[in-house]
């Protein structure tokens, strides 16, 4: 490997390299630990947690599309308490940052989860606001600036010293509006993009492939949308960005970093190749070295718009 | 410990409508074999993001490379790509995945395979050293594949076809019922095939009070238990995962109405 | 070819088959007429017109992404008058429906263009509302229901007997809101989706590939988003839908039709294979025949949601 | 009339860093040849949506199949795929596209090719039956490809390299200046190469009052003039399209500051 400094800092959290794994694609790390040492990762965004255990949606929960996949897992998870007692100690064995990802039905639920997780000692909390707000009639928090700000505010108030990163949904007219709202409400970092809503129909059975009819699109197909949104958000806010959406090579990660991301997450690409995060890291190092950089973090925000 | 590696195709032949392939899989069997009924997760070209799960038909430890055989039918893009690979080509294989059947080498089992669910039962037959009875079913005579192999590795082989072109005219569960009523000495029923068949077989086994294990299918992402897409509804309302908790489940655990 | 009735009707306009070519990807038909007889097409959405001629944006105007492309042509066109005198007569030689696609800076411009085109005798007018509204400070008409409705209203008022189809942008939080607004304002049909905004960066030069920095994503990558949006819109409105976005095979077209489209457009896929529209048509016929249908139009809206 | 067809690769060799391929193109030349300087638009596998434009190096009508040669360098994914094709493989080729150079077979032209812009000038040399002078430029000696072919088909061949490893030490425009001042008998200058080179060559030709045509590059979609992505800025503020109006333009038409 070339001699390039790989470490990056995201909202005060220093990672040994800029590659983390995306929430929901890596479980709580146990399975992929059979393939490589988790200490090689910059960080791990754990599977999305809710206050109480959830079984998620009925199967089929996945469909393939051109260079993408749709999923409709629907936040199956053992609940925040089981995460803290059963999963966190396992993750803590590794020398990597642990980022808990949370979803709530109400702002209060976000608050309770933040308090528990801050107490348990995670490195960062990623607040997923793509889930519907039950009180606001099922409207997703992530599509309305005032709701997004409210959730962020409550999360911050209960997270103590633990930095709060808010994860934005791409299913909006103007992502910068949401980004500014959560920054204004105190978010320490922003991650994006979550999945884009899509659908696939089996033309023979005439049934949607997913039992939920629609699901979230991820994978290489969405990379150009992710790059655009990271770039727009980077210009709109000052907080650091964790970029994701379709990364499968060092070059993809470099695009997101140039657009403004301080670090990147790899999700869907894991399913084709479990070693993708390490290959992305190495690819970034080679690319940075080839450009004569001393550190990979020098890429962040360095796009030269026309 | 699971592995992901390039595996060379060392034999390829047509069996009925299906393709039979043998792969050199390095130390994959030594490293991750647990029981017959596990599967491999195979990458089908650069253009497809998702691997395809295919059951292990039979496998053996060997030097320098363990050997593993799979049998599959062309259903869509991925299996079409797979069927196009030739002797000497390499496949990107992740495995062995899943748990397989819970069975004792010295046990006596009734193996039930339907259609493309037949091949994984061969591994069970071999594992139990000739003691098993196999019931093979399919739409018609040409869907009953690998019969000769089963005759080699089983005490008894029965066939059923929907159109009566081979063996019993009807479904396998009728043969299961006959066999279980004539012979009370089975340690269990192990089945792989389409869900309606599994449900019917499970019902018969339950009637006779014989434990029954079924191999379930579901669309997969990671294949290792991390992404949680391959949910299988359980009778108790919970959801387990075919790739990690399965693909084999106790028939009484499964919610057959889901 | 199997014996299936291919004809479909879109807002009273009967087409010999459901496959049209998407605006901006087929010019005014001259070039692709070198490859096949344009009379084989259900219809032709001509390149987007503006009131006055425009040279469009500087190059590069295209970038490749995983199973997609980005474009930033920016409505280069000879203006509506030149279309009527130079291009329409050429298109009229063929036995196919001619759909003019228009973009304006103000509602008034849309009105003037509709009047001219209705007078010249096009078969349908497709109103593109993805362009920024100069008066409303550059906000795209297509992202605000009230603006979309205003443009539709003015277009309808000036289009006489010619049906008006409004083309929706997918870059919105809730596409049904816009769809209902344009239906309410009198749209005879709705087409979707236009391109999704994206970006690609050359990691070596650090420049966006497109001179405009960002551009519109199209091609197979967007198919699942198109299917989802067509399905949502089909449930929200009663007017017929022209579905598009990533169609390259009969199966893709069938997905859009099952989701609710009465006809489909093929765009980006033309660049890889000029014969795509005919292959899509034939693929649809084979698929419908395989399902025992007497007519391809029987597919429309027949998805069976779970 | 343009065609899109499968074309068999009947020769493939390495020339310097570039790949030289000959294709059997059916009646493509008979149907669509206009002048040297046209290009073909080649599909580079299923995974890439956009075809890649490659200039015709030389071509000839033949029976049963016309022959066409291309020379290309590996720059990215598409050309890498192309370079991986073997003798006997088929390529999906759309062509001939574009207009080519406006030249008379009996004219005397000064042909200027830089780097991978050299090959298309060979077609011009052959078209004008040995009367042309060729000036070939490149970074170093190994970038000057096809020199022997040019020697066969030209009255005179001059070379320039940035590093002086072959011929004149410096840029081609110095040789153009020398040649035009020594020989007033040229009907025109025809050039293909990187944009800065084209601009400099055009400037020199203009000084001498000799008409100059340049072959421009731009990223393409359809390759036939329908999608309007391949815009080239003109001096008069309009935008023309490389694939349809070009790739060859009169040097005075082009906005060199864009
Ligand atoms: C544990 C397990 C073991 C299997 N063993 C075998 C075997 O030994 N032989 C065999 O022929 N088939 C087997 N299958 C089914 C096989 O995985 C599918 O036929 C195959 O994935 C179809 O892929 P495709 O690209 O050809 O079809 P497509 O329909 O194009 O596939 C699209 C997507 O749907 C998924 N998919 C489609 N059908 C199935 C299915 N029945 N089960 C799971 N995913 C599906 C694919 O994996 C892919 O992600 C098994 C499935 C599972 C879950
Ligand atoms: C009219 C014309 C004639 C050409 N003739 C030749 C030739 O004879 N030999 C040769 O080696 N090259 C030639 N080129 C350049 C050649 O088209 C590019 O090198 C090639 O497209 C790069 O594709 P890629 O996939 O390897 O690179 P990538 O960078 O991966 O390509 C990505 C995209 O950018 C486009 N692109 C990248 N570079 C160029 C470029 N310089 N010009 C146009 N599009 C580009 C590609 O077509 C593709 O759409 C010509 C270009 C044009 C416009
Ligand atoms: C199977 C699956 C499950 C996911 N679950 C979650 C989740 O629980 N919480 C969350 O914030 N994002 C979730 N995501 C979104 C990813 O974290 C990521 O934002 C998205 O997939 C884009 O990245 P990718 O293209 O690299 O996969 C999930 C994605 C997939 C594919
Ligand atoms: C090069 C290009 C130019 C386009 N120009 C227009 C246009 O002028 N007006 C318009 O309404 N849509 C335009 N579009 C959008 C297409 O009509 C279509 O909505 C979109 O490309 C999705 O379909 P596809 O994936 O089949 O290309 C253009 C698309 C492309 C690729
Ligand atoms: S496929 Fe990922 S958990 Fe089963
Ligand atoms: S590439 Fe489409 S107009 Fe030139």
UniProtKB/TrEMBL annotation, chains A, C:
UniProt pathway: Pyrimidine metabolism; UMP biosynthesis via de novo pathway; orotate from (S)-dihydroorotate (NAD(+) route): step 1/1
Cofactor: FMN
Keywords from the UniProt entry: Cytoplasm, Flavoprotein, FMN, NAD, Oxidoreductase, Pyrimidine biosynthesis
GO MF annotation terms: dihydroorotate dehydrogenase (NAD+) activity
Domain of life: Bacteria
GO BP term (any one): 'de novo' UMP biosynthetic process
Residues that coordinate or bind FMN: 23, 47-48, 101, 128, 167, 193, 219, 245-246, 267-268
Annotated catalysed reactions: (S)-dihydroorotate + NAD(+) = orotate + NADH + H(+); (S)-dihydroorotate + A = orotate + AH2
EC number annotated for this UniProt entry: 1.3.-.-
Pfam families the record matches: DHO_dh
Record-linked PANTHER family: DIHYDROOROTATE DEHYDROGENASE (FUMARATE), DIHYDROOROTATE DEHYDROGENASE (QUINONE), MITOCHONDRIAL-RELATED
Function, in words: Catalyzes the conversion of dihydroorotate to orotate with NAD(+) as electron acceptor.
Protein's name according to its UniProt entry: Dihydroorotate dehydrogenase
Gene behind the chain: pyrD
Automatic annotation (TrEMBL), chains B, D:
Co-factor requirement: [2Fe-2S] cluster; FAD
Cofactor note as given: Binds 1 [2Fe-2S] cluster per subunit.
Pathway where this protein functions: Pyrimidine metabolism; UMP biosynthesis via de novo pathway; orotate from (S)-dihydroorotate (NAD(+) route): step 1/1
CDD domains registered for this protein in UniProt: DHOD_e_trans
Keyword Transmembrane helix: no
SUPFAM superfamilies the UniProt entry points to: Ferredoxin reductase-like, C-terminal NADP-linked domain (SSF52343), Riboflavin synthase domain-like (SSF63380)
Residues the record lists as binding FAD: 52-55, 78-79
Sorted UniProt keywords: 2Fe-2S, Electron transport, FAD, Flavoprotein, Iron, Iron-sulfur, Metal-binding, Pyrimidine biosynthesis, Transport
Claim: Metal-binding is one of the keywords in the record: yes
One biological process term in Gene Ontology: 'de novo' UMP biosynthetic process
Residue intervals of the FAD-binding FR-type domain: 2-103
InterPro entries with a match to the protein in the record: Cyt_c3_hydrogenase_gsu, Dihydroorotate_DH_ele_sf, Dihydroorotate_DH_Fe-S-bd, Dihydroorotate_DHASE_ETsu, FAD-bd_FR_type, FNR_nucleotide-bd, PyrK_electron_transfer, Riboflavin_synthase-like_b-brl
Gene Ontology molecular function: 2 iron, 2 sulfur cluster binding; electron transfer activity; flavin adenine dinucleotide binding; metal ion binding; oxidoreductase activity
Residues bound to [2Fe-2S] cluster: 222, 227, 230, 243
HAMAP family: DHODB_Fe_S_bind
Subunit structure: Heterotetramer of 2 PyrK and 2 PyrD type B subunits.
Stated role: Responsible for channeling the electrons from the oxidation of dihydroorotate from the FMN redox center in the PyrD type B subunit to the ultimate electron acceptor NAD(+).
PANTHER family in alphabetical order: DIHYDROOROTATE DEHYDROGENASE B (NAD(+)), ELECTRON TRANSFER SUBUNIT (PTHR43513), DIHYDROOROTATE DEHYDROGENASE B (NAD(+)), ELECTRON TRANSFER SUBUNIT-RELATED (PTHR43513:SF3)
Protein name in the entry: Dihydroorotate dehydrogenase B (NAD(+)), electron transfer subunit
Highest classification ranks of the organism: Bacteria, Bacillati, Bacillota, Clostridia, Eubacteriales
